[in-house]
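Task 17 of the worksheet. Students: predict the tertiary structure of the chain below and write it out as structure tokens. Keep your answer in the requested format; marks are given for formatting as well as content.
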Amino acid sequence: MPTDLPAAHSANAESALKILYQDESVVAVHKPGGLLVHRSMIDRRETRFLLQLLRDQIGQRVYPLHRLDKPTQGIVLMALSPEIARLMGPQFEQGDVEKHYWAIVRGYCEAQNTIDYALKEELDAMTDGKAKQDKPAQAAVTQYRRLARVEWPYPVGRYDSARYSLLELQPKTGRKHQLRRHLKHIFHPIVGDTTHGDGKQNRFFRDHFHAHGLMLCAKRLSFVHPINGDRIQLETQLDAEMQRLVDDESWCWD
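Model answer:
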């Protein structure tokens, strides 16, 4: 069982972003957990953003094609010109970009399943004040398969031991906080989720493993190159904190 795990590396600790792929059209980078993709009114105190850090690192402007929540780690793909951004847009809109995430969740999940549960748009009081408040729920679909299970002999809440699953998640739609909300819906919230998660589980990971981050990583992404038509397959590594937990020998892999 993992012990004395170090706290997650902050974005400030990174000397440079890890670039996973780059050519004349696009660049893909690993976004550390805790780093915003771009400046946002939701967190006005932040001074470091993926967009600016990557621009400064490669010496040219970048155009985000999608985003990850601040606490989520993993692959972010950006265009290197407005023209490429326009060409790539339909792939994201039509679901042709394949995304696979890894997540540690509470409890033992089924070996595989599909979560088909419509989600109402989450509006932020600060940035969405003028948005329509009564929009109907939008279709949202997530497929998952279980990669491993673990049971640790520590009481959490009313249970004598703590059970978790490592899942691979594939969102088929792109709703706000879709994975976090879908896992909450099936009563297997993602560990470290302070908005949609389980406070008892989050405290357990902080107290026993010194694990403070969201256990969710955008692990793999594939897309069709907008110029040559090749299918590009990208994969990243887990951040140190999540990797230490996944490496524990107690896991039973499927």
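Marker's comment: Confidence is low (pLDDT under 50) at residues 3-14. The first helix runs from residue 50 to 58.
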